[in-house]
């Protein structure tokens, strides 16, 4: 019955390798035996007390399992032991326990080490770690030649010190695109010492010291691969103890070295480079400059049913996939998109630029590689609203058009933006005036024959594409005829001469008539 219980206790921990599970102690389940090592004797001296002990070198077994003595200068007084996986029955530090386990693991039972020399080398290292003692093996009890075990001890210690070595890529950021296949070569040449624990959606395998990962199509996300240091057999660490007797241990590593590797499959990315316009006033004119447009909102929708690597429906057609907003550089992106067809709609513009109502269709595919990443780039331009001014200059009297009239156009805050001449049709047409503000027109130089107008003609472009017509009238200059002085003086002289002549004739006639009247009166008096 005791032997059966011992076998059960040995088998149970086999299924817990790599964990810190503790098997409760079983009483009197382990039987002690030993095997003498011919021609070898041990020597121990406590450096603190000076106490010494010597005797035949032996290999020890509990239930047929090789064991090492843990306590220097302590005799074996019993042949029936209790067993446990719990180191607390010994009273060592965690650091001592870890070291002793590794030394025993790489000792006699390690592949290629099955010699008495390796057993004695491991036993000597264990004693010296467990207590402040001097130990050696000699060819005779209490004398003879010291057996040189430095080669074996150095080999064991090299394996102990390198046990915690990890693959060279363990701290790397392991990312790839969905559907990619990558190989990670371990330049530390220790990967083959680890087993792989993984049950994810990708394919993971180890070929000697190369880790191969085949990412599934349309799988996006992060997974964890666990690696556990392999044991050369399935036995577990067991401590054998009995009151007032030497403690022994069949040594294996209780908590095998393990590490986790995060791998990430990246989906596709749509990158939006959003441009807009701003108006610049300078030197009595204006121009439009292209700028990065921030704070523009976009919504991205599926344009077909989108499925993942397992065939699971992720998005139905027309489902919202994501929303993004452009940053200060006009840049926006949506990452981790599955292969498939999509479209983008602008939801809000900024800085006075008009909303772009166009739908932008695009597809995420394996062909959209940009420096190793799946990226679809979209350059989208927004514009400020603009309208057209049709200005006409007219004659106020007859309504005819007046060419060659120079006008000036100002914003309502008196900023000059245009100066030019009416054409042969008396017109000026400006097609790209900024909408949403008011303007006024004044005349700078009138056409020849017209008076300068003091009128201000106000107008406003309210909406994009609006055509505003404006008119201004002018009056002709009245021409006053100035007389020719020489000609007028000559004519006046002629007239004056005529007047003098006529007057002289009149005087003569008047004198003659008067004389005749006087003579008649005289004749009448004389007749009387």
Low-confidence stretches: 1-20, 519-528
Largest sheet: 6 strands, antiparallel, barrel
Multimeric state: single chain
Q: What average pLDDT do the residues reach?
A: 89
Number of helices: 5
From the N-terminal CA to the C-terminal CA, the straight-line distance is 215 Å
What does this structure look like?
With 528 residues, the protein is an alpha+beta fold. Among the domains are: 2-162, no CATH class; 268-381, Immunoglobulins (Immunoglobulin-like, Sandwich), CATH 2.60.40.10; 386-474, Immunoglobulin-like. It has five helices and 33 strands. The strands form eight sheets. It has a six-stranded antiparallel β-barrel. Strands 16, 17, 22, 25 and 26 form a five-stranded mixed beta sheet that branches. Residues 1-20 and 519-528 have low confidence and may be disordered.
Helix-strand blueprint:
Blueprint: H1 2-11, E1 26-46, E2 52-62, E3 65-69, E4 80-84, H2 94-105, H3 116-130, E5 133-140, E6 143-146, H4 150-162, E7 174-177, E8 181-185, E9 194-197, E10 203-207, E11 210-214, E12 221-229, E13 238-241, E14 248-250, E15 258-266, E16 268-282, E17 285-292, E18 297-302, E19 306-307, E20 313-315, E21 320-325, E22 331-337, E23 340-348, E24 360-364, E25 369-370, E26 373-381, E27 386-395, E28 406-411, E29 416-421, E30 427-434, E31 437-445, E32 457-461, E33 467-474, H5 485-527
Parallel strand pairs: 7-15, 16-26, 27-33
Antiparallel strand pairs: 1-2, 1-4, 1-5, 2-3, 3-14, 4-13, 5-6, 8-11, 9-12, 10-11, 12-15, 13-14, 16-17, 16-22, 18-21, 18-23, 19-20, 23-24, 25-26, 27-30, 28-29, 28-31, 31-32
Helix pairs in contact: 2-3, 3-4
């Amino acid at each position: 019955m005791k032997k059966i219980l011992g076998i059960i206790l040995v088998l149970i921990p086999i299924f817990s390798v790599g964990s810190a599970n503790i098997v409760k102690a079983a009483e009197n389940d382990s039987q002690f035996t030993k095997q003498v090592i011919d021609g070898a004797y041990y020597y121990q001296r406590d450096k603190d007390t000076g106490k010494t002990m010597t005797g035949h070198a032996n290999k020890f077994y509990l239930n047929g399992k090789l064991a090492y003595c843990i306590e220097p200068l302590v005799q074996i007084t019993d042949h029936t032991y209790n067993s446990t996986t719990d180191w607390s029955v010994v009273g060592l530090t965690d650091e001592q326990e870890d070291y002793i386990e590794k030394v025993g693991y790489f000792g006699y039972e390690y592949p290629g080490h099955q010699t008495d020399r390796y057993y004695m080398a491991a036993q000597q290292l264990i004693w010296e770690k467990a207590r402040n003692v001097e130990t050696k093996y000699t060819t005779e009890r209490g004398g003879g030649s010291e057996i040189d075990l430095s080669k074996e001890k150095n080999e064991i210690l090299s394996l102990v010190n390198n046990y915690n070595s990890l693959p060279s890529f363990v701290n790397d950021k392991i990312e790839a695109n969905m559907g990619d296949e990558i190989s990670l070569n371990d330049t530390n040449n220790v990967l083959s010492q680890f087993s792989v624990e993984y049950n994810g959606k990708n394919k993971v395998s180890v070929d000697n010291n190369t880790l191969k990962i085949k990412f599934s199509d349309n799988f996006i996300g992060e997974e964890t691969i666990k690696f556990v240091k392999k044991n050369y057999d399935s036995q577990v660490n067991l401590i054998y103890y009995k009151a007032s007797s030497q403690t022994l241990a069949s040594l294996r590593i209780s908590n095998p070295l393990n590490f986790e590797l995060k791998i990430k499959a990246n989906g596709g990315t749509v990158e939006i480079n959003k441009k807009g316009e701003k108006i610049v006033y300078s030197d009595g004119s204006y121009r439009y400059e292209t700028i990065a447009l921030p704070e523009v909102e976009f919504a991205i929708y599926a344009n077909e049913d989108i499925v993942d690597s397992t065939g699971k429906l992720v998005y139905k057609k027309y489902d919202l996939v994501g929303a993004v907003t452009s940053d200060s550089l006009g840049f926006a992106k949506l990452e981790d998109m599955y292969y498939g067809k999509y479209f983008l709609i602008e939801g809000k513009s900024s800085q006075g630029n008009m909303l772009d109502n166009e739908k932008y269709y695009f597809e995420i595919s394996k062909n959209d590689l940009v420096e190793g990443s799946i990226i679809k780039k979209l350059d989208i331009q927004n514009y400020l609203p603009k309208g057209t001014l049709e200005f006409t200059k007219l004659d106020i009297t007859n309504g005819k058009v007046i060419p060659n009239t120079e006008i000036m156009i100002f914003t309502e805050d008196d900023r000059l933006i245009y100066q030019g001449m009416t054409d042969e049709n008396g017109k000026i047409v400006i097609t790209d005036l900024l909408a949403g503000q008011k303007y006024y027109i004044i005349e700078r130089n009138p056409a020849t024959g017209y008076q300068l107008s003091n009128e201000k003609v106000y107008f406003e472009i309210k909406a994009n594409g609006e055509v505003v017509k404006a008119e201004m009238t002018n009056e002709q200059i009245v021409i006053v005829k100035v007389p020719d002085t020489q000609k007028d003086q000559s004519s006046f002289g002629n007239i004056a001469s005529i007047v003098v002549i006529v007057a002289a004739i009149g005087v003569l006639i008047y004198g003659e008539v008067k004389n005749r009247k006087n003579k008649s009166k005289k004749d009448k008096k004389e007749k009387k």
